[in-house]
């Protein structure tokens, strides 16, 4: 389903029922509060629920997973304490299938491939370094990519994650010479004007924690020239 069921207060709701809510994060939004003090997406969603259902007191909302701040796309939240541990288990056991779109300037060596690296995270730099062979304190990272479309000066890749490591897509694509557009941290030559990067959490498939039926969400990318070209 690629639709927006509500678009209020700069919040795009892609799916909602009694137990879960899925929103389309804009680049620049943070999912949870951090040292910047900026209002996180989780608080925006709480405000939306409080207003929509006229709820008194505090609104319950569980954060299931996160996206990097400059990234856009699907973020899933739990609306009940019953659903949260079940969703956490789904993600921990890799039973939620996440697909991303990435726009890169340099075409990868192959039209499709499985990348295996060992990522070493540097917390001070907030950056992960990709190695071909295992190094101390590294974690194995696996993804599959395929070339979806050739744009005028860029290339659209679809990426399926097999592991969920810190900055995994950004680091691994950079390691094969195809850094994501706007991603200065991982080797792109200039930043995007809005500090975004062209990485979008495009699809999410998972079994509903209560209804036990498959949920398949597709998020439209940001309304921007390059992303719009990807949809044409």
TrEMBL record:
<dbReference type="InterPro" id="IPR006145">
    <property type="entry name" value="PsdUridine_synth_RsuA/RluA"/>
</dbReference>
<feature type="domain" description="Pseudouridine synthase RsuA/RluA-like">
    <location>
        <begin position="19"/>
        <end position="175"/>
    </location>
</feature>
<dbReference type="Pfam" id="PF00849">
    <property type="entry name" value="PseudoU_synth_2"/>
</dbReference>
<dbReference type="InterPro" id="IPR050188">
    <property type="entry name" value="RluA_PseudoU_synthase"/>
</dbReference>
<keyword id="KW-0413">Isomerase</keyword>
<dbReference type="GO" id="GO:0006396">
    <property type="term" value="P:RNA processing"/>
</dbReference>
<dbReference type="InterPro" id="IPR006224">
    <property type="entry name" value="PsdUridine_synth_RluA-like_CS"/>
</dbReference>
<dbReference type="GO" id="GO:0009982">
    <property type="term" value="F:pseudouridine synthase activity"/>
</dbReference>
<dbReference type="GO" id="GO:0003723">
    <property type="term" value="F:RNA binding"/>
</dbReference>
<dbReference type="GO" id="GO:0140098">
    <property type="term" value="F:catalytic activity, acting on RNA"/>
</dbReference>
<dbReference type="GO" id="GO:0001522">
    <property type="term" value="P:pseudouridine synthesis"/>
</dbReference>
<dbReference type="InterPro" id="IPR020103">
    <property type="entry name" value="PsdUridine_synth_cat_dom_sf"/>
</dbReference>
<protein>
    <submittedName>
        <fullName>23S rRNA pseudouridine1911/1915/1917 synthase</fullName>
    </submittedName>
</protein>
<comment type="similarity">
    <text>Belongs to the pseudouridine synthase RluA family.</text>
</comment>
């Amino acid at each position: 389903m690629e639709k927006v069921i509500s678009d209020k207060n700069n919040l795009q709701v892609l799916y909602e029922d009694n137990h879960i809510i899925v929103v389309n994060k804009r680049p620049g939004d943070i999912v949870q509060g951090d040292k910047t003090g900026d209002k996180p997406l989780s608080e925006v969603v709480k405000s939306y629920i409080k207003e929509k259902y006229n709820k008194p007191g505090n609104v319950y909302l569980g954060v299931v997973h996160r996206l990097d701040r400059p990234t856009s796309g699907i973020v899933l939240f739990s609306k009940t304490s019953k659903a949260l541990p079940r969703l956490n288990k789904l993600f921990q056991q890799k039973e939620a299938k996440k697909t991303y779109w990435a726009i890169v300037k340099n075409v990868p060596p192959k039209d499709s491939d499985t990348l295996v690296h060992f990522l070493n995270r540097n917390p001070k730099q907030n950056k992960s370094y990709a190695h071909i062979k295992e190094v101390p304190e590294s974690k194995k990272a696996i993804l599959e990519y395929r070339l979806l479309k050739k744009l005028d000066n860029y290339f659209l890749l679809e990426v399926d994650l097999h592991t969920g490591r810190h900055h995994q897509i950004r680091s691994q694509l950079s390691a094969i010479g195809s850094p994501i557009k706007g991603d200065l941290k991982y080797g792109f030559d200039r930043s995007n004007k809005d500090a975004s990067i062209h990485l979008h959490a495009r699809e999410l498939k998972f079994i509903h924690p209560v209804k036990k039926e498959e949920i398949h969400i597709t998020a439209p990318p940001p309304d921007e020239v390059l992303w719009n070209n990807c949809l044409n």
